[in-house]
Amino acid sequence: MKKRLLIILLVIAGSSLGAHEFWLEPRKFNLKKGESLYLCFRVGENFEGENWKGTQSSVESLRLYYGNVEDDLQPLISDSIPGDSLNLQFYDEGTALVTYQSTNKFIELEPAKFLEYLEEDRLQEAIAYRKEHGESDSTGRENYKRCTKTLFQVGAVKDEVYKKPCGHDLEFIPLQHPYSLKKGQSLKFSLLYRKKPLPNALVKIHHRMNGKTDITNLTTNDRGIVELPIKFFGKYLLSSVHMKRVDNEEHADWQSYWASFTWGY
Q1: For 98-139, what is each residue's pLDDT tens digit?
Q2: What is the pLDDT of residues 25-73, one digit of tens each?
């Protein structure tokens, strides 16, 4: 690996909680060359959260894409001591992308809570299936994976890293460079499920500035694309959930994938 990056340390553990969203959040999204990046794993609601408490057993993949560098960051996560953050330092200008996909986790919810969750994320196929098969009063048993990405900018040099597909089960890909937009332009994202466009999916846009979060719900079109107006201040979180019925799992009836993408100005 070309030495354009210094990985300083895996920072100490934080707390965790059961929550809806999971995302990667740099302390700053725009860095000067040679400046350190403090990158947090966050879990919570309303683009507010607590530090993730995870070990290497929670990580299916953790990768950095930066210029012509692709690096595996997974070994930096301890297999015994919970951790929540990475501290990185970049010595060349360019666009950088960090991606994380979790291993499967299991959750079991009582029928009313499971229905509430399905309705909140507009998972109509799952609601219809449970109704048609007499499962509406059954416990919701689900495996889920987190599929998250963050994009940040080092210096003024912008490159094509922003649109790099990373092979997550569910992933957002910007169709324009978020840090090259002009005033008045909107930003389009493609949402892919196993490398194919996912139409008619709910996408939640969280925009946070000055301690306040505004949330807008949009839906991908028939080509799996969502378009959002951009304000050049604050930070953004996109999130979406996709769920499939599974019949070959002993303890779970559903498999879901939770995608998120963060960037900021």
Answers
A1: 999 999 999 999 999 999 999 999 999 999 999 999 999 999
A2: 999 999 999 999 999 999 999 999 888 877 888 899 999 999 888 999 9
Residue 211: both structure tokens together: 């301690």
Residue 258 CA to residue 105 CA, distance in Å, equals 12
Quick one: which of 46, 47, 28, 48 has its CA closest to 38?
Answer: 28
Contact 85, 39 (CB under 8 A): yes
By residue count, the chain amounts to: 265
Does residue 115 lie within any of the structural domains?
Answer: no
Number of domains in the chain: 1
- DSSP letter at 20 equals S
pTM equals 0.90
Q: Rounded to whole angstroms, how far apart are CA atoms 122 and 201? A: 8
**Alpha carbon distance 172, 121 (integer Å):** 17
In a domain, 47, yes or no: yes
User: 175 by DSSP, 3-state: which?
Assistant: coil
User: Residue 21: inside a domain, yes or no?
Assistant: yes
- Please enumerate in sequence order all residues whose Cβ is within 8 A of that of 63, keeping only pairs 6 or more positions apart, or say none: 70, 71, 72, 73, 74, 98, 99, 166
Decide: residue 234, CB within 10 A, 0-12 exposed, 13-18 middle, 19+ buried.
middle
By DSSP bridging, strand 105-109 and strand 235-245 are unpaired
CA atoms lying within 13 Å on the CB side of residue 177 = 15
